[in-house]
Amino acid sequence: MTSEIHCDSLWHGADIVTMREGKYHILHDGALAVRDGKIVWIGEYAARPAITADETVKFEGGIITPGLVDCHTHLVFGGDRSAEFEQRLNGVSYAEIAAQGGGIISTVNATRNAPEEQLLAQAQFRLRPLLAEGVTCVEVKSGYGLTPQSELKMLRVARRLAETLPVEVKTTCLAAHALPPEYAAAPMTISIWCATPLFPKPPAPAWPTRSTPSANIWPFRRSRWKKVFAAAERAGLPVKLHAEQLSALGGSALAARHRALSADHLEYATEQDAQAMGAAGTVAVLLPGAYYLLRETQCPPVELFRKHRVPMAIASDANPGTSPALSLRLMMNMACTLFRLTPEEALAGVTLHAARALGLQESHGSLESGKVADFVHWPLSRPAELTYWLGGQLPCTVIFRGEVR
User: Fold this and answer.
1) Is 393 annotated as a binding residue?
2) Is 265 marked as a binding-site residue?
3) What DSSP character marks residue 299?
4) Is 72 annotated among the ligand-binding residues?
5) Can you say how many angstroms the Cα of residue 126 is from the centroid of all Cα atoms in its chain?
C-alpha cells in the first residue's frame, strides 16, 4: 500500500512529454508532484497515489516538457560584430576585416576592456530571450579574454548570471579559443600558456552550486590538445572539444578516448569518430546556427551518429561572430530542416542529450522522480509543434525549481 505523499505543489491538466531515454514517452493527462524543487512523483493523474499538496495548479490542456538546456553558448563577451556581418554581405573578405582589426581579436579587445558590470548586463540581455522560450539550464564558455585574468573575469560574470536570473549555469573554460595577439610571433607558447595557469582548481566556495565548471578545447594541433587535456584532468575538470568543424582532424575520437562529455560542431566527423564517441558515451553537439551563418555545405554525419548510437544534442552556439542566435527553438527547426533530425530527436537534443553533454543527465533533461522540477507548459497539441513553428516566441509557462519563473 502506497503511503500518502506530501508535496509543495501538484501540477496537472496537460500531457507530459517526459523525454525518458531520449524519447517522448508521453503521459496523457499527466501529473507532477514537487517538493523542495524536485519531482517526487510523476504519472497519469487518474493513477495518482494519495497526495496532499500545499498548492495545486491545473492547466487547461497543452503539453509539458522538461526545461530546455542550451549546452553550448558564448554569451559573455564585449561589443558585437554586426558591422562585420554587414561588411561581409557587402563583399568585404574576412581577411580584409581581420586586417582592419576585426574578427575574433576585436571581440577579445572589447572583452578585455569591458568592466564586469557591463559584461554582465550584456550577457543578461542575450540570455533573457533564451529563458523566455523555455531554457532553464545554459552552458556559458569563456574564450574571449585570452589571458588568465580576463578569462577568470568572464567566468565570474557567467557565474553571476546564475545569481541574478532564475537559471542553472554551467561554466566552461575555453581559454585556448584563439591565439592571443601577444603570442602571434611565438605560437608554440600557446601550449604552455594553456596547460599551466588556465585550469586552476578553485576552492569549493568559489563555485556556486548553480554554476559548475568544465574545460573546453579549441582544435589547435593535436600535440597541444593532449597538454590541455592533461591540465584539465589535473584540475579535476571534465572536458569538451570543438571538433571537425572545418576539416577532419580526428579530434572527436581523441576526445572520446579521454572520456570527454562532448565533441561539438562535427560537420567533418568520420565513422571512426562516431564509433569512438558511441563507445565512450561522448555526446555530439550539433550547432546549426554556425552552419547556417557560415553557409557551410557539409552536414554532420547524422546517419553515422544514429548507427553508432551517439547521443545528439543541439545548441545555439550564441556568439558574436558565427552564430548570433538567441532562439534555441529556431536551432531545433534548423537541425531538422538542415541536418534531417526528427522532431523527437530535436527535442531530445535540447533536453536529455543536452544535459548529458554537460554531465547533468542524472538531474536534468527529463521529467522523472528525483530530478529537478524544471519544466515548461506549452499550449500546444503535440511536441512536434516546438520544431514546426518559425519565428516569434510561443507562449509558455516556465517552472524553475518548482516555482513559476
Assistant:
1) no
2) no
3) P
4) yes
5) 14
Report how far Cα 279 is from the mean position of its chain's Cα atoms: 22
Residue 278, annotated as binding a ligand: no
Task: Report pLDDT digits (tens) over 243-254.
Answer: 767 666 777 888
CATH of domain 68-357: 3.20.20.140
User: Is 144 marked as binding a ligand?
Assistant: yes
CA distance 177 to 104: 9
Domain assignments of the chain as residue spans, ordered by start:
5-65+367-404, 68-357
Asked whether the beta carbons of 26 and 62 are under 8 A apart, the reply is no
Verdict on whether the full-model pTM lies above 0.85: yes
Convert the pLDDT of each residue in 368-403 to its tens digit: 999 999 999 999 999 999 999 998 889 999 999 999
Known binding residue 164? Answer is no
* Cα(83)–Cα(87) distance, integer angstroms: 6
Task: Judge whether 333 is annotated as a binding position.
Answer: no
Phi, psi of 166, deg, nearest 5: -80, 85
Please say whether the dihedral angle defined by the alpha carbons of residues 67, 71, 206 and 109, taken in this order, is positive or negative.
Answer: negative
**Residue 319 known to bind ligand:** yes
Task: Note whether 5-65+367-404 and 68-357 share their fold.
Answer: no
Yes or no: domain 5-65+367-404 corresponds to CATH 2.30.40.10: yes
What DSSP state is assigned to residue 129? H
322 is in an annotated binding site: yes
